[in-house]
Amino acid sequence: MAKYRKNINEAPIDYEGPERMDPSIERKITSKTTPYAEHPGLPKMDRDFVEVISSERFKNSVNNVRRYLGDTTKIQGGPQQVMMSLMSSAMQLFGKIGQIESRNKEYLENLAVELVKKEMSIPEGAMQFDAKLIHGGMSSAEGMRGESEEPTAEEVKDAFASADEHQDELEAFMDSFEKFNQEKAKRRFINALIGGAAKKGHYMFELVADELENINPELVRIYGMSQALLDHLYWIYPEQMVSSMAASGEGQVGQSEVDTETDPPTVIARGASFPVLIHELVKGVYEIFGTHGLPDDPRQAEMVIASEDTLPAEIWDLRLGPIFWEKFVAAYPDEIFEEDKRHIQHYLFMRFSSLTPEEFFKLSKFILSDNPKGKQVLQRMVDDIIQELKKQDLDSQFGDNDEDEDEDYEGPSLSDLGI
Q1: What is the Cα–Cα distance from 16 to 58, expressed in whole angstroms?
Q2: Is 237 exposed, middle or buried (0-12, 13-18, 19+ CB in 10 A)?
Q3: Deepest in the core among 43, 64, 308, 364, taking most CB within 10 A?
Q4: Are strands 254-259 and 266-271 parallel, antiparallel or unpaired?
């Protein structure tokens, strides 16, 4: 036990001031019991990767409070005291936001959709959007679980074992669990990227500051304060209270889901404020892209989702996902930030999600560790995507002489790319 305590204390969270995260969250990080503990897609470093990025994200949340509130006095003190103070302040701000937004509800809903479509380069007609501002409370999100729903051993074997590959019963049993765990880890990483991308959407309201100030000169400032407090609450809300939130819907300010049965797919988003609604819209868009990372078998996909898509895990996605996302985007080739090529970012995300788990984890480690090979692989993927899009464009103009050619092609593997 003494050795265990020593190992934990050798690498504490890096605090720069008096602000502190809740002790239960810090214990999860230092004891390596977060949803990302021993994740096969995270790089091995001299210091635990999750601990490093947790320190960075906590500092970011403190800096956002300082930026929008002027100082960090409100988030100093005992965790329980800070949590109650933040929740009270957030409720007051959301009450004021609701009063202003209720008079401009439809305009803001449409503005949120148009902003997301523009900033994410969503082609007209590619997706449908059902966006609503909900003031005064929200029901618990359908499908959001307080705990992971793990299948039985027999169910895993039936769904993931391949009788063609294994004649031995024990070998088939072990192989099925390995495949299941790999797919779960892949889903966890994709969810972190989605959470990170959506978290960046929290502050996209600044891009339409003029429109918002025309509604009310205070609105931009209030939005900034509310989002900074919400972001910091993720680091203050005790771990043991998260599951009860999932069951009751208490404290829920947004939710989203996607309907892939419609043509085109529909993103359904609800938010207690304009910035939260944007967050949920971005999350929904990337959720559609991220479905390419699920197993093709519907039963396998359902089991993976039931195991990984939980509120406690999603909160960790929001805590740490922004770092995952920043590193992923930093590895993008410069050319896909050009106005006429920004849509290629979505093809790249889908192509990355479609890699086999082994390839997915290998590339993830390159990207998160800032290994130049990560940029090289993404560049080659982009080159391949551009060539495919050019071919499709030519085929549409002149007709495809071989309709079956490359029908199921999903791009090169890492070995094809020389990695």
Answers
A1: 10
A2: buried
A3: 364
A4: antiparallel
SS3 content of the chain, % helix, strand, coil (to 5): 65, 5, 30
Instruction: Tally the residues of the chain.
Output: 419
Q: What pLDDT sits at residue 172? A: 62
* C-alpha–C-alpha distance, residues 140 and 254, integer Å: 10
Cα distances (angstroms) measured from residue 310 to each of 141, 221, 246, 401: 11, 32, 8, 47
Task: Find the DSSP H helices in 254-339.
Answer: 274-290, 298-308, 311-330
Q: What is the pLDDT of residues 12-21, one digit of tens each?
A: 789 989 999 9
CB 176: neighbour CB atoms within 10 A?
21
Output the pTM of the full model: 0.86
- pLDDT band, residue 248 (cuts 50/70/90): low
Residue 159: its pLDDT value, please?
81
- The candidate with the shortest Cα–Cα distance to 249, out of 381, 145, 98, 102, is 145
H or E element in which residue 183 lies: helix 169-200
Pairwise CA distance, residues 220 & 208, whole Å = 9
- 336-362 pLDDT, tens digit per residue, is 999 889 999 999 999 999 999 999 999
% of the chain at pLDDT higher than 90? 64
**Around 237, how many Cα atoms within 13 Å sit in the side-chain half-sphere?**
22
Which three-class secondary structure state does DSSP give residue 294? coil
Our measurement of the distance from residue 268's CA atom to the centroid of its chain's CA atoms, rounded to an integer in Å, reads: 16
Tokens matching residue 132 = 């609503």
Residue 270 contacts residue 139 (beta carbons within 8 Å): no
CA angle 56, 373, 365 (to 5 degrees): 45
Query: Could you tell me where the beta strands, DSSP code E, fall in 115-198?
Result: 128-133
Contacts of 315 (CB under 8 A, 6+ apart): 234, 237, 242
- The CA distance from 16 to 167, in Å, is 58
Q: Is 143 left (phi over 0), alpha (psi -120 to 50) or beta?
A: left
Q: Model confidence at 11, in pLDDT bands (50, 70, 90)?
A: very low
Largest CA-CA distance found in the chain, in angstroms, rounded: 73
Residues 6+ apart with CB under 8 A from 138: 249, 252, 253, 254, 255, 270, 272
